[in-house]
Amino acid sequence: MPEKRESLPPAKILLVGTLGSGKTTVAEHLSDRTGIPYRSIDRYREEHGDGTVAGEYRAQTAFMEACSATRPAVIEFSGCGPHAGMAAVALRESGLPVSVIWLDAPEKICLERAERRSGQVPYPLPWGDVALSISSISCDLKKTWEWVWTSGRRFRTLHLPLNGGETAEEITDKVVAFVWE
Question: Matching Pfam families, A to Z (predicted)?
Answer without folding.
Answer: AAA_33 (PF13671)
